[in-house]
Amino acid sequence: MPHVLAIIVLTVTGGVLVIAGLMFFLRPRWLLDWLKGMAVFGLILVGLYSLVLAVNLAGYQTLGGMQTVATISTQREAEQIWRVTLQVEGSAPNERTLRGDQWQMDARIIRFTGPVRWLGIAPAYRLESLSGRYTSLEQERTAPRTVIGLSEKNWPDLWQLDRKFNFPFVEGVSGNATFMPMRDGATFDVRISTSGLVAVPVNDQAREAVQFWDQ
């Protein structure tokens, strides 16, 4: 848009908006009705937002400081095929099969700011998935993948909505994944804080796997 035309469009738009605003003061009843309508509309928006928060928090767990949320043990069944035992805090052990050289756990974390935080609502987390990874980039692109869902999907998804639209008073933390090499007999604790996930080796096999992996 040419510079002069832009000035004309902005001037006309501004003039129309100012005149429209002044019309409310010439007829106070319009102004009062408009204010009432905006107040009702605001209440509806706040109510809907509260309902979205409530629906999503029902599928999350309270996060308070660094805490252990799961234990993962691996047993080799065949080349790049592993039997993985997942023990989530408060649940029975769950055995699944993963393909690859490493396991990866993903989680979603929601932190709150402003008025929502003032209400004392603590940060919340949800374990999202457990999957296998390959060391080889070529295999990672072409080999069969194993992804195990660890939670049910919520709608509307507050974490996803915040990532796209930057919702007020909510922060959907990104990059919440941890991964470790799979080794026969290795056991890891998965811990979480408001910064994300971290995996900690808890037996000799796991420590050896990490030591060899880092070399």
TrEMBL record:
Keywords associated with the record: Membrane, Transmembrane, Transmembrane helix
Domain of life the protein comes from: Bacteria
Transmembrane segments: 6-26, 38-60
Protein's recorded name: Multidrug transporter
